[in-house]
Fold these 2 entries.
Entry 1:
Amino acid sequence: ETGVTQSPTHLIKTRGQQVTLRCSSQSGHNTVSWYQQALGQGPQFIFQYYREEENGRGNFPPRFSGLQFPNYSSELNVNALELDDSALYLCASSFSRTDGLVSYNEQFFGPGTRLTVL
Amino acid sequence: RKEVEQDPGPFNVPEGATVAFNCTYSNSASQSFFWYRQDCRKEPKLLMSVYSSGNEDGRFTAQLNRASQYISLLIRDSKLSDSATYLCAVTRPYNQGGKLIFGQGTELSVKP
């Protein structure tokens, strides 16, 4: 096991609602990245958090936002849910150098949260 | 064209077969390369990092060809338990956001 945990494991929401997903990183890691994986596709990068700040973002609208806490855990918030937001949401934990440059170290994934939007 | 592309699947092979996965990437400045394995409805698990010198872990061998911008994964003596989707992933350089870009995955089914 990677030691990366996510909650909840499953979630059902309706269009227009808001959702918060949570991730606890592996011990010793300081960086959390979030991904969206639709059925039959590879994970798509949403954003990354390092030292409580966003440190890179993919092609996702502003209604996808996040936070990182001093203990390096993280939240992903999605507002105004759309049907296409239905997917597996994965967080990945890694270690970044203290100069803030993005880590090229391996990323380890949590079990994911499966979100269904009706 | 997608930034990372993999062989379309699925691959259906008998037990004991050797199977090769290929993955191409379009960003020549890509920095790090990985193979992940993903079981149905589970999270991706890191299988191997891929280095220019190539690396081997038991039945698994990964190769990187920077000149041709592709990475490969070879599985020898395949087992039923190797059935999964194999994802290649590439890291952009930090001055391009440094994010990990995945291919769409190639499904492998090993049959008795």
Entry 2:
Amino acid sequence: EDQVTQSPEALRLQEGESSSLNCSYTVSGLRGLFWYRQDPGKGPEFLFTLYSAGEEKEKERLKATLTKKESFLHITAPKPEDSATYLCAVQEQRNRDDKIIFGKGTRLHILP
Amino acid sequence: DSGVTQTPKHLITATGQRVTLRCSPRSGDLSVYWYQQSLDQGLQFLIQYYNGEERAKGNILERFSAQQFPDLHSELNLSSLELGDSALYFCASSVAAGQGYEQYFGPGTRLTVT
């Protein structure tokens, strides 16, 4: 069965302490891998799309990378405002199906 | 602000009832998606419409239905509601279908079934 697994489930870091979140996936052909940030009670906020292995994208303190089986979201020198749940999602390479499969997310808490 | 709007923000209703959730996509977006988010299941894809036609179906119950209108807004109808239907319902939109277009999410509707 197709699956998206994120680890760790939760992560507590001190302000300025860099780390990485992992997203591993098993789909029969990847059309795109997406990273979202979600604050409590709000809709997911789009961060990045990655399409092929070796691709990297950056935005402020966040950098997303992609291999054939997993993606990493690197957080450099995080600040308390980076605290949120980070969601990974994949879209399969199918003829007409744009189904998106979300992981359960990593809850990130940055301590001041 | 993503540009996707959803109404109502909160909905409290009783078991057995029927409700309609409404979504307006970002200006220019043709594709609309519906998701359900509960604490134990995470974000679950329900259904996608593209330019008025159903394009993809996920884990949508037979008691649920959706449609997209000519002005591209969409409605999700939930009937014979059960306690387990209590969740956050999100709508998302993308500019087109296929090719890994990113989806932009609305603020959600929190449904509570009592």
